[in-house]
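Thread: iron/sulfur cluster complex, take 2
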Amino acid sequence: MKHSLPNKDTRFLYLEPYTFSVMAGNDVLIYNSLNGKILEYRDSPSIVEIIRKTEDAGGGFLAEIDRVSARPEISSLISDLRENFCGDLISLADQHKPSVIRPKAIIKNYPPAKDFPSFSADDYLRTIYFFLNQNNNKVCTDYRFAASQFVCPVFNSQGYSEMPFETVVKTCSQFAGVSGMGIDLSGSDLTAYSEINFVLKRIHKLQSRVNFHLPLPCYDQDIVSRLLKVGNSRTSIYITFPDGPSALKEIRINPEYIKKQNRIDLNFLIRSMEEYQVITELLQGNGKEKVFFFPYFNGRNADFFKENVFLARNDILALKPNQKQIYSRSLINEHLYGKIFIKTGGEAYANLNHDPLGNINKESISDLVRNELYNGKSWGLTRLKVKPCGDCLYQLFCPPIGNYELFMKRFNFCDVL
Ligand code: SF4
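Output below.
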């Protein structure tokens, strides 16, 4: 990019490397990721033009400013930037442009080149989530969309079906001992799975971190005790209404449960404030489990859902992401990345709201990971790629797109746009 010859009144504006800017139409937002300061300018085409120049590598990330003819809004931009440690003016006393760096995020080998010689699925994969059984019992029909709204073993299926445990063993044996790799064993009722004894005998041979997912009220005291005894494992319990809370009361007196409380997650699927009240009473005073609440949208509780899932502008701006989060969110979806879900029939998904990537009975896990990396819709789904978020000044602040949004096919769970 060419600049006119600088004179003694010419200065160059730069932004610090730890600042981020977003432009949409004539609006611009500048965010200092170190001190959390946010500068927002609306309907200011001249400020947008200047900030755009500070983003341009071809122009050395510098915007030329003539001190004499600078408009008042530009002068006030410069004072704001200085006061908030976001940037400053520099002169060219020695007639050479200083070097300014505005880093951009790059993930090594992501997506991998198609002829990348040593493609390895475990460079990308973090969790494989197997549904060992599926059902259409009452809990599954009452919460038929739960697995589309958040990670959950409950969803309605056509009748009862099971996955042979051999499928899990075959798929996971190549990842034995790979650090950071997890196996999630789930299903509409794990305790009713016909091969559960085989699972409990063989699971340690997979040498991976295991998470068992168990909906209540389906449970069997003896099997739950044995699941809890598996080393290097966590158990995620999903409590549904109306029978889940009383089943939880019963299971919480199990001696193995009491011993292993810090390895248990309690996930409450709630549809109303009344259900929330029941849970707060239930949890009063004791327990070392990690507790999570998942508002469940059943088509009839829009007000409750909106109140508990939607974010207000001030809440969004208070999120203050750090540099690492901003870089990673500009390339991948941190919530969805690295996960594969496999149903009883072998159909594999990067996300249950998207089309299947293939079938584990016909393709290797590496092929499925490749399919997602090259053609998939989930792992790389950033806010920049969807409307209206892609045109929103607050896209840096919002958490990555989640299952609720994919399920509802709407990305602005907010009061901004
Ligand atoms: S429109 Fe999208 S990016 Fe903007 S605030 Fe709403 S959710 Fe966030």
